[in-house]
Amino acid sequence: MKHFQYQILFIAVTLLLTPHLLHAKTTNEAQYSNEQIRIKFSPRTPEQIAAFYEGRGFSKAMVNKLKQQCFITVRILNKSRDIIWLDLSNWTFTNTEGEFKRTTRAKWKLLWKKMAIPLAHQSTFRWTLLPEELDFRPNEHEGGNITLPFSSKPFTLQAGFKTKADKSGKAFNIQVNNIRCAY
Question: Taking the mean position of all CA atoms in its chain, how far away is CA 97?
Answer without folding.
Answer: 22
